[in-house]
Amino acid sequence: MLEPVPGEAAAVADCGAERALVVADYHAGLEVGLRSEGVEIRSRAEARREHLLELLGRTDVDRVVFLGDLGDAIGEPAGAGPVGFCHGHTWPAEDVLAAPVLCTAHEHPRVALVDEVGGRRIERTWLRGSLDPDGFPEYERVGDRLVVCPAFNGLSGGTLVNEADEFLSPFLPGGLADGEVYLLDGTRLGPYRTV
Questions:
Q1: Which residues contact 166 (CB under 8 A, 6 or more apart)?
Q2: Whose C-alpha in 32, 108, 118, 160 is 20 to 30 A from the C-alpha of 17?
Q3: If you compute the radius of gyration of the chain from its CA atoms, what whole number of angstroms results?
């Protein structure tokens, strides 16, 4: 129903009659915002746009689903057949949460990887697992699976899911029963709490 594109911070969702490229937290104009705060950084907007166009050609999809933070505005959550889409900054709509797979963003999940000599590297990740109905006490129906997408924009910070970082989404981590971390290349790192 929803498969990450290997090596990319994007996924392809089978939405019944059509396939969609799912991109989370594109953050167009992030560099301009940083510049206005005194942080000088060269714009990567052109490269980001070209990368997205290349992904569209490579994945042969019918449409693109942006999971919030495209620029400044955040749209309404939507369901597309077996996959419910929401940005994740608020509680999802009931019909979105009831879909077999809930696909969300906002968290920008990352892991800190430390080697044996103390070298540390931060990597963007996918967070995937079962939905825990106990995390949604106000809802009658809850789907089966949750996928938290990495930010498409590599300049965005994020939640270090394997450290003591607080989750940003109101339904995480409570709504995630058994989340596992995957690197963008598909490498499974295991349960997010023990990576």
A1: 159
A2: 108
A3: 16
